[in-house]
Amino acid sequence: MKKVILFTAIVSLFAINKVQAQAGAAFGLKGGLNLNKLNTEIAGTTSDMRVGPVGGLWVRAKVLGFFVQAEALYSTKGGKISTPAIGLIPATESKINAAYLDVPVLIGKSFFSLVRVNLGPNFQYLLSAKDGSADIKNAYNSFVVGYQAGVGVDIKKIGVDLRYDGNISNVTKSVSGVKNSTRSSVFQLTVAYKLFGVLND
Fold it and tell me: Which helix (H) or strand (E) holds 114?
């Protein structure tokens, strides 16, 4: 099922240029930074922000007065998690570095051919996960459903977006039947460049 969703989303990313041809469509590149924090439900645990790169492809098409934008992004996430000592169990500190293929599919509205607002689901496919140099990919879910919401500004071929990216499902697996509720909270700032296409209001 996950492969079907991934295939459908990526095919949609490139096929959407053919949708609503009269209204217009555009395609381009984007890149920027994720400011990410991992949130857990473990009592006393604290986490610090991690800054990492994000970048990839985007395509946008007008549909019935709105726009649909699909993206395929290499997205780095993670953070430092500190857990206090409990009884004889010593305190621990983890420095998590994870990489995902993010496929957000957003619906939005543009105003005055300048400002955009958008939101929608973000399908996240785990590529790698490490704690320092240790590989911990097996402790993470290979597929996570999230969401994105944000605003953007377009000036000619350049676009700037600020989004919040959250998780609906957990990024970590259950341990011995105990649900491990860890979710990622991301503020994402990107700059996009339109390679070709025309969008008409």
Answer: none
DSSP state of 20: T
SS3 16: helix
- CB burial of 111-139 (b: ≥16 within 10 Å; e: otherwise) equals eeeeebebeebbbbbbeebebeeeebeee
Contacts for 190 with CB less than 8 Å, ≥ 6 apart: 30, 31, 32, 33, 54, 55, 160, 161, 163
> CA-CA distance, 180 to 174, in Å (whole number)?
5
User: What's the one-letter identity of residue 182?
Assistant: T
Distance CA 80, CA 96 (A): 6
Q: What is the pLDDT of residue 44?
A: 64
* pTM, 2 dp: 0.83
Walk along the chain (201 residues) in steps of 10 and give the mean pLDDT of each run.
53 50 79 92 74 96 92 93 73 86 96 93 96 91 96 95 94 67 91 85 55
Contact by Cβ (8 Å): 39, 185: yes
Beta carbons of 154 and 114 less than 8 angstroms apart: yes
Q: Which tokens hold the place of 55? A: 């970048």
**Tokens 């973000």 belong to which residue?**
122
Joined together, the tokens standing for residue 58 give 């985007």
Q: Which domains does the chain have, with CATH numbers?
A: 2-20+27-199 (2.40.160.20)
pLDDT at 20: 41
Residue 199 carries which side chain, given as an amino acid letter? L
